[in-house]
Structures are given as structure tokens and as C-alpha cells.
Write a structure and sequence with these properties.
heterodimer, A: mainly beta, six-stranded mixed sheet, 11 strands, about 0% helix, B: mainly beta, seven-stranded mixed sheet, about 50% strand
Chain lengths: ~110, ~120
């Protein structure tokens, strides 16, 4: 089966840093995605990791350790607009199944002034 | 970049009626489309995967006779919620996949808020 875990909620202060962890136990692995989703809207792509290590993109960074089944998303210099849900998703390696994504439960981040 | 258009954005229907949701890839051919549902404060749950010209593959626990998926062309997939009931009220999102496209090939529609009264 697929098991992808994230904390449910996190609160942080504007200007601070927040790290959102994601652990996964899946039958297959072909990359891990992070998405941001504001309420009532579609998810927007933030990052993709398929090899171990850190990927940095502006204020957002994502890390992957395949041996540990672990990833994190790091948000720096938090802004009020960063208040949203952050979704971790693992890609299935089976092409015949469309390389479908399985999502974790999502982490709601609340940024306070 | 790749754009997926999903309509309607909101729909209210009476219990027992059917509702059709459309998902179109506007500037690319989507070999695969995914349909998700999302309850308030929860994550996206995959309902089914559809490939153009073939039957959809449904996830365990999803009733294929209730959630009819048609993927008649490389740019259009539809989800029909048949005999809708209040418990079907949810946020439905489609995602189109075309390898080589932006965002590593997964582009999401803007979602449809279905309310069954």
C-alpha cells in the first residue's frame, strides 16, 4: 500500500523559516513532488526531487533522502501569502498506470504577523 | 505553459440528478488524465486514471458506475457524477499528463465545487 505522512498543521511567524516534513512508504518510487494549494484552488507546482539531495528555488527548497523515505520542504522568509496547504506527492513508477501521483494528507501552514 | 481548463467551477444540483464536469488540455495533448476529489481540509484522493480511447482505471473503493469517466480525445476528459447525493458534495480536480510538459508533466485544472442539495 501507499503511506505518505505529513504534519496536519504548522504555524510560523512572518519572516521566519518553516520546514515541512514528509515521510513515505510506497510500493514504488519515481520522484516526489511538493505542491502549494490555497483553499478552493488547484495545486500549484513547487518542486520535484528524484535524486537524493537539496533542490533550491528562491525562497523554497526541497530535500530528498530515498534511503530514509523522507523529504522536506523549506520555506524561508515567510510571507503572509505563504499561508496555504502544502502537499507532498509520490509518483508511481508504473507507466502503464499513468505514473500516477499519490498525495499525503497535506500540511496547513498559517503565517502570523 | 501547459493549461488545463476545467468547467464548471461551481455547480449546485438536486439530489438524484447527474452532473458532468469537463477537463480540457488547451495547448497540449494529454495522454493521461487523472480525476481527484478533495473534502474540506483534506488532501487530494485519486479517483481514477483515464487514457485516451480506453476505459478508465478506478481506485479501490470508487464506484465506476457512479463516477463515469470518458476520455474520448487527447484534449478532453469528462467526469459524470450520476444520481448525485449530498455525500458526493466535494471539490473535484482533474490533472492532465503529457510527458515533457512543464511541471514535469502534471497540470491541474482549477477544480469544480459540487454541492448536492
Amino acid at each position: 500500500g501507499q503511506n505518505i505522512d505529513q504534519p496536519t498543521e504548522m504555524t510560523a511567524t512572518e519572516g521566519a523559516i518553516v520546514q515541512i516534513n514528509c515521510t513515505y512508504q510506497t510500493s514504488g518510487f519515481n520522484g516526489l513532488f511538493w505542491y502549494q494549494q490555497h483553499a478552493g484552488e488547484a495545486p500549484t507546482f513547487l518542486s520535484y526531487n528524484v535524486l537524493d539531495g537539496l533542490e533550491e528555488k528562491g525562497r523554497f527548497s526541497s530535500f530528498l533522502s530515498r534511503s530514509k523515505g523522507y523529504s522536506y520542504l523549506l520555506l524561508k522568509e515567510l510571507q503572509m501569502k505563504d499561508s496555504a496547504s502544502y502537499l507532498c506527492a509520490v509518483r508511481d513508477p508504473i507507466k502503464a498506470a499513468g505514473n500516477k501521483l499519490t498525495f499525503g494528507g497535506g500540511t496547513r501552514v498559517l503565517v502570523k504577523p | 505553459g501547459a493549461v488545463v481548463s476545467q468547467h464548471p467551477s461551481r455547480v449546485i444540483c438536486k439530489s438524484g440528478t447527474s452532473v458532468k464536469i469537463e477537463c480540457r488540455s488547451l495547448d497540449f495533448q494529454a495522454t493521461t488524465m487523472f480525476w481527484y476529489r478533495q473534502f474540506p481540509k483534506q488532501s487530494l484522493m485519486l479517483m481514477a486514471t483515464s487514457n485516451e480511447g480506453s476505459k478508465a482505471t478506478y481506485e479501490q473503493g470508487v464506484e465506476k458506475d457512479k463516477f463515469l469517466i470518458n476520455h474520448a480525445s487527447l484534449t478532453l476528459s469528462t467526469l459524470t457524477v450520476t444520481s448525485a447525493h449530498p455525500e458526493d458534495s466535494s471539490f473535484y480536480i482533474c490533472s492532465a499528463r503529457e510527458p515533457g510538459q512543464a511541471n514535469y508533466g502534471y497540470t491541474f485544472g482549477s477544480g469544480t465545487r459540487l454541492t448536492v442539495v
